[in-house]
Amino acid sequence: MTSDFTSLAHMLRHRVEVDRERAALVFLTGDDLQESRLTYGQLDREARAVAVALAKRNVSGQPVLLIEPPGLRFMAAIFGCLYAGAVVVPSYPPSPREGTKAASRFLRIIRDAQPVVVIGSGKPLETARCMVAAELPCVDLDSLPGQAEEDRPEPKLSHSDVALIQYTSGSTGAPKGVTLTHGNFLSNLEAFAKGTLVSTSSVGVSWLPPYHDLGLFCTLLPIYAGFKLVHMSPDQFLKNPITWLKAISHFNGTISAAPNFAYDLCVRRVLKNDYKQIDLSCWEVASNGAEPVKFETLDRFSRTFSRCGFKSTAMQPCYGMAEATLWISGKPIKTEPVIGRFSKQDLERGLVVPLGQAETDMLPENLQERMLVSSGRVADGFDLKIVNPRTGSDSPANEVGEILIAGPSVSPGYWKNEEATRDAFVDEPEDKGAKRFLKTGDLGFVHDGELYITGRLKDLIIVRGLNYYPQDIEQATETAHPAVMPNGVCAFAVEGDDGEKVVVVCEIARTQARKADLNEVMNLIRAAVGEELELQVSSAVLLKQGALPRTTSGKLRRSACEQAYLDGTLNPLTQMEFGLGGAPGSERIPGESGSAGKVHPFLPTTKQGDALI
């Protein structure tokens, strides 16, 4: 492993020189895990063929939209773009149905990125040809030779050259193109490699979409560090989660990453009779990110699969985002996750008051706790500070604030979007080091050197001057009735006649939609949130399973859900309005029309970035 690469293209060329005949990528299909694979030499030859075809289009320094489905050819295509000196724009293949979210997202990316070429194959490319302007050329990977008939172009690339535009998942708004340089990637790959202690003997297993953030990095890290990657499509995992665990067992996988919901899905969907088919004792790093990491998830997964050899020390809560390329912090491997216990009432006021760390420690009467999973320690090379998002001043150590980061992995900005770039970045004066900080839009704090994430600034619900995190409301709702789908709840606030109105939208399990008394479900949701958080739910909405709007990586799109609620387009099974006010004496978010004029310390004055891990 080396950090002396000049570009991502140089990274692969180096790997070919030292490991030409070694297996680089294995792609699995079907429940029986049928294999296809490429060595580093084969990957290089296929990438060169792509590069030669693209070079004829003069793509050096220009965006190329890549819409190839997950697989070996996707990896050859992405490196072919890099070999040609192009700026890669990986994107999900477009949907053939007009008006769908996937089709709309594809067209938005086309308008924003303004690619000079679209590259792909099969039905996705046919669909793209029908959707884009006739003058936009498309390169069909099926028509290329298996290897280049002439030498690949070798543009001189440096750390400062743009390598890729990573479109955010849009969990808090429309997708934005994050500009990432070769230097951003190489710096972050080094941080990721150090944080996971991977080596040439590691084996990676991934089912994540390879188009952005964690999924993209799971495909690049093995080439950086020189170990084998075993990959399958996201659909394969979602249809049958045990295939992920079987792949880890069969290939002796040592590192595999997934968002929180995937670990919960395995607990729910993998049958006890299947446990004997899998051996997870080889799994050393189980990175958990892409959404708030729940203590309950870590505990359930570790307990359930301990009988398969899984070690709780393998669990690695981590934190990152597209604007930082990916990795910002993570738990040291082969250590237990750190679970902090904090006063819930004080967190509602933006204060950090730690309680006893042992579960047996007695709490004072009437004192409620909130258990937070640490996201580990910030990686070397990053500067992190916690600030008051309204004033921009540094927050005291005992206060929750917005997380700001600076370092060589941080993006230079958003593609052709100066306004969004100005809103998301803060330049410090020279007397403070002239560093450029990214406003992450995440709320959190550092305690005993550990980074804790409490929620998204844009998602924060403010009632009676107190801060309520939607994750807490969602967790209380999930436990209210067995018909409510795990990870199937979305909480937000909208403005009502008497102030903030708390809305809970949740999915009802397919098997329960006709059996359960839905009126009882809604009343129990209101009761559970009231008892747990002393917060009144004003509106409960029940949807069919799978109906909540989500990003391509499975995260809730709270802003989209809120807008659909306001537009009346959620198509609910049923809903119940409990009252106009969120709670007696509730107030609007300060600064909105009709507010009492009180300025809350968490009120943002600018827009923030989109967190991805």
Give the tags.
613 residues, alpha/beta, five-stranded mixed sheet, five-stranded antiparallel sheet, 16 helices, disordered C terminus
Mind explaining what this structure looks like?
The strands form eight sheets. Strands 11-12-13-14-17 form a five-stranded mixed sheet. Strands 18, 19, 21, 22 and 23 form a five-stranded antiparallel sheet that branches. The chain has a four-stranded mixed sheet with strand order 2-1-10-9, with helices on both faces. The radius of gyration is 24 Å and the shape is globular. The model is unreliable at 580-613 (pLDDT under 50). It has 613 residues and is of the alpha/beta class. Helix 6 crosses helix 7. The relative contact order is 0.09.
Topology diagram in text:
Elements: H1 8-19, E1 23-29, E2 34-39, H2 40-55, E3 63-66, H3 72-83, E4 87-90, H4 101-113, E5 117-120, H5 122-131, E6 138-140, E7 162-167, E8 177-181, H6 182-196, E9 203-206, H7 213-225, E10 228-232, H8 234-239, H9 242-250, E11 255-259, H10 260-269, E12 285-289, H11 295-305, E13 315-320, E14 327-330, E15 339-343, H12 344-348, E16 369-373, E17 377-378, E18 383-387, E19 401-406, E20 413-414, H13 418-424, E21 425-427, E22 436-447, E23 450-456, E24 461-463, E25 466-468, H14 470-478, E26 484-496, E27 499-508, H15 518-533, E28 539-544, H16 558-567, E29 574-577
Parallel strand pairs: 1-10, 3-4, 3-5, 5-6, 9-10, 11-12, 12-13, 27-28
Antiparallel strand pairs: 1-2, 7-8, 8-20, 13-14, 14-17, 15-16, 18-19, 19-22, 21-22, 22-23, 24-25, 26-27, 28-29
Helix pairs in contact: 2-3, 6-7, 10-11, 14-15
